[in-house]
């Protein structure tokens, strides 16, 4: 059955109600043995509400004034009896998804070692990469060095649960900005090198693998159906394979004189690798070899460090204004009561001082970055003057969303592929607090800077100049439609 966007959301709403009890039971079985007391859960929920209302810059983007409080009250009612750690994690995931912010969630990567061991330490990760196409889970390759199914195979059922039912359960828990449902679907796929993937986390808490084995029902590319069992991988094993690939950046110039720069990850803080020197060396080669064009492939790249501005500085001819987003925060100085549980890596986030101007009549503080011409890209080094195409998809939702939007608005490159994640109405980020919930031991990511456009914008990501959507038969036959379109544009 093909699922339209409307039918998926309608099914998701129904499944969100009917699956709560079953999900809770499975989560309880998967959790650490101790149960959380009602008082502990409710005190942490009170703290979370206080922190969000005092700090979160996007709480009112899609919720009415005071609109987060009823969600917290419902969670408090849910906590009327003892719950497992896994149940509490799932509840926080659902609760934070209600904010409709792609950077607000119970982050598996930021949990304590104890919580990670209790919830995410089992061999229950699928050794497959897949993406959702028309509501169907289509295999794109393997993970962790395994490739047990050919690309283009369809996952009909996992753990005995139909894949479309799994998708409907997970959609209400998937994080994205506003109404960008393409990002929600992208978030629920499995990338080859993804860390603590949302699908892995939710599925393993609902349906812990028995004996480390995951039962599947699949439809092969030739149409035959079969059942099989695959050994689950641990997150640690998958991360070991990721360490071998690093950021996965690649650069080459093909025989037609077109450069191809592939950047599947911009999370550079985990690496001491000099990515700036890499980009500069790539552009120097383009100039030295008089390349005709450049394809920048950002597909699957959620964001991280703002690497794109370093590249753009080698492409612009003159100072180039970027799309303007006002930077605002809800506070100048963090309330004393929130200082102990709100952890961060930069002490300046606790007290903005004079860099936060305000408050205005709506209680906002405007952040001054110290540069009156701040939203500019200035030329740097030898310029590559050839044509440029940038490949994007729904994963591009943070720094890569901002880069895609800049490329689209300035005309510096041709944008090709699928609509991005993020949202033209603005996103939240720019720094984070890690809300350490003391009674339950769990953590929630809390962004602290809101980015707001100058006027009304549509509730969606960036739409490319040229669409390049992926179909199942493209995966079966190894065709890259977006890349082919980019090369044709640069011919």
From TrEMBL:
It holds the Pfam family Peptidase_S41. Residues 1-29 form the signal peptide. One of its GO terms (biological process) is proteolysis. This is Peptidase S41. InterPro entries: ClpP/crotonase-like_dom_sf, Tail-specific_protease, TAT_signal. GO terms for molecular function: serine-type peptidase activity. PROSITE patterns: TAT. Residues 258-423 form the Tail specific protease domain. It comes from the Bacteria. Keywords: Signal.
């Amino acid at each position: 059955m093909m699922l339209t966007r409307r039918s998926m959301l309608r099914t998701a709403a129904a499944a969100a109600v009917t699956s709560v009890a079953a999900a809770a039971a499975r989560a309880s079985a998967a959790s650490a043995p101790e149960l959380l007391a009602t008082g502990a859960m409710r005190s942490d929920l009170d703290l979370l509400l206080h922190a969000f209302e005092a700090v979160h810059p996007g709480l009112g983007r899609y919720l009415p004034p005071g609109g987060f409080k009823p969600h917290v009250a419902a969670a408090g009612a849910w906590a009327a009896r003892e719950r497992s750690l896994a149940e509490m994690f799932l509840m926080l995931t659902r609760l934070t998804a209600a904010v409709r912010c792609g950077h607000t969630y119970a982050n598996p990567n930021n949990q304590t070692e104890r919580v990670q061991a209790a919830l995410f330490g089992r061999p229950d990760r699928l050794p497959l990469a897949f993406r959702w196409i028309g509501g169907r889970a289509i295999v794109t390759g393997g993970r962790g060095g395994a490739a047990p199914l050919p690309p283009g195979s369809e996952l009909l059922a996992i753990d005995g649960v139909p894949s479309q039912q799994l998708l409907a359960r997970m959609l209400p828990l998937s994080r994205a900005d506003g109404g960008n449902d393409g990002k929600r679907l992208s978030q629920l796929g499995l990338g080859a090198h993804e860390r603590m993937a949302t699908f892995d986390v939710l599925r393993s808490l609902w349906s812990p693998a028995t004996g480390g084995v995951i039962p599947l029902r699949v439809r092969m590319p030739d149409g035959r159906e079969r059942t099989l069992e695959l050994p689950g991988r641990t997150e640690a094993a998958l991360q070991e394979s990721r360490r071998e690939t690093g950021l996965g950046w690649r650069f080459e110039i093909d025989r037609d004189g077109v450069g191809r720069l592939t950047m599947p990850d911009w999370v550079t803080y985990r690496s001491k690798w000099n990515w700036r020197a890499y980009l500069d060396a790539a552009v120097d080669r383009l100039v030295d070899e008089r390349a005709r064009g450049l394809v920048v492939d950002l597909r699957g790249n959620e964001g991280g460090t703002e690497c794109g501005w370093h590249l753009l500085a080698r492409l612009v001819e003159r100072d180039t204004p970027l799309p303007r987003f006002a930077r605002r925060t809800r506070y100048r100085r963090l309330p004393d009561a929130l200082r102990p549980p709100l952890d961060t890596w930069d002490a300046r986030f606790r007290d903005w001082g004079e860099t936060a101007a305000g408050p205005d009549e709506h209680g906002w503080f405007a952040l001054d970055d110290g540069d009156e011409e701040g939203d500019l890209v200035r030329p740097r080094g030898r310029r590559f003057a050839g044509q440029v195409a940038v490949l994007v998809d729904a994963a591009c939702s943070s720094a890569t969303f901002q880069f895609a939007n800049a490329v689209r608005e300035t005309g510096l490159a041709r944008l090709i592929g699928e609509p991005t994640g993020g949202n033209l109405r603005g996103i939240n980020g720019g720094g984070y607090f890690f809300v350490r919930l003391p009674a339950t031991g769990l953590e929630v990511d809390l962004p602290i800077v809101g980015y707001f456009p100058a006027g009304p914008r549509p509730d969606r990501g960036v739409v490319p100049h040229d669409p390049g959507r992926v179909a199942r038969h493209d995966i079966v036959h190894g065709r890259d439609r977006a890349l082919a379109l980019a090369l044709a544009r640069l011919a």
